[in-house]
Design a protein that fits this description.
Blueprint lengths: L1 H119 L8 H13 L3 H14 L6 H14 L3 H14 L6 H14 L3 H14 L4 H14 L28
Helix pairs in contact: 2-3, 2-4, 3-4, 4-5, 5-6, 6-7, 6-8, 7-8
Amino acid sequence: MRASTLLIAGFALPALSGCLATRQEIEDLRADIIRLNTTLQSQQKKEAEFQSALQENQEGLQGNQADLMNKMGELTHSLEALSSQLVESDDRMTTLATRLDDLDKNVSNRLDAVVKTVQGVKSIPAPSPSRFYQAGYAEFTKRRYAQALQVFQNYLDQYPDTEQAPQAQYYMGEAHLAEKNTEEALDAFDAVIKNYPKSGSVPAAYLQKGKILEGDGKISEAIAIYDALARKYPHRKEAQTAGQRLRALRGDKDPAPKPAPKPAPKPAPKPTDSGAGR
């Protein structure tokens, strides 16, 4: 009895062991199936999301294509309008070119007529320098300063070295000063001093230049001009005025110094007897 029991137990143990192994495999298989189902569901979810995104992209692409087609249509319309405008502009340019040709011919014909007329007229002699200067001076005395400036400038352009050229240059400065164009007046008076240093108009030009500088607040420059005038031309009345301005600017209360007397002319040498000693 005991031996049979042991014999049965010997056969049952391997069978039981095999049954346990089969259950473990089943459990592992179930776990694998669950894991695969989970993975499958995740993949299906991703696929659904991908399909949704793809559909949205397709819809957006279709919308972009529609917008692009609309813009292409607008661009085509604009190009057609521009082409039409270019054609109109070309027609206008052609018309304008024709008009310009006609105008050029008309002007040429008129110019030829003027040339023929001028050639048939005797040349008018230019006025003498003296009359030219007098014309400018007449405008100046009438206070027509712009006209005087033009006449004097034309005079200096044609006759820069005549006897009356310094006066013309000086009166240009006076005309500018009357028009309150101080910079142009300074240039004109400087031109008198530099271009005509031996002219009798130079002292007056110095004085006017000093007054302009003094009026502009350039006291040191004005003093230098007044001082140069007083030293170079001590016997001119402009020098006396310059001395007064110097004393006023320097605060000198001493009486004005008298100008130095003119040097007395040397006596002429006595004639010698050419026949003496013969």
